[in-house]
Amino acid sequence: MLAGPQGYATFVISYLVNALQQLRMGQLNEQHSAQIRTLAREHAVTSIVFSAMTLEAFCNYCIAGLLESLRGHHQDVVVEQLKRHFRNLRIKEKWKQLFQHRDAHLLSTISADWQLYLELIEVRNQLVHSAGVKRTPAFHPVESLDSRDAQRALGSVNNMMRHGTQLFPDLIPRETYDGGTFEPVLTRTFPQERVPLSRFLSEPFRLMELGVPPFRAFGPKAYREVLGLEDLVPPENFVMLEIQPLFFSSATNEGMASLKVMGYTWDEHSFLQPP
Fold this sequence. Notes:
By secondary structure, the protein is an alpha+beta fold. Helices cover about 50% and strands about 15% of the residues. A hairpin with a 4-residue loop joins strand 4 and strand 5 (about 255-265). The longest helix has 30 residues, at about 40-70.
């Protein structure tokens, strides 16, 4: 893993942002017709997997930084032995030993957060490795996952990153966490502000929080007249546009975004008015 702020942004923050974006997509899907709601589980699953990836990347980043900090106090051969030791551990064992390096009693004081994290890993293993089903009370069964499960997974991300940052503030780029609570912060484009992850999770879902509405759905008439792309799909279909903001200026109300077009079979009961 790359060291320093670049590595942290490339792995930890990018995975976290993807987890949050997938949660928002699932929340939006659940607000609409059954045809659209079928996509909600897909987004929940993706968000949960990205949440687990975020925490694995965060833990590995902390371990790498910790081992590098030991080079001034130990021979290189000792540090390399420790690297091999950590490399062969399961992720939950990495977390345990990382925490115990600074606070041998931490796990007993954060038992509820630790249990939620263990359940997140179990759900992730069921999704990715088809692992045997174990009881995970905080989450729905894998075939019934929804945005609430994705939100719980991101809550676990917030908890674990907060505990890790509080123990190792010297290893984490200062601009990536709140100095008072130690929880991760992300940039909201509209309005422009740095927001702790807990606020993203507790505030009502807002289409405009990323600067432009991330989705617009159009029926056949709007598809033909507004988009002017009627030759691409039959008029009995409609499309959903996923707009991914690249930047946005609230002063000029202008910006740039990437665009993905997704098509679905038209059904009068699933018509979505443009927001």
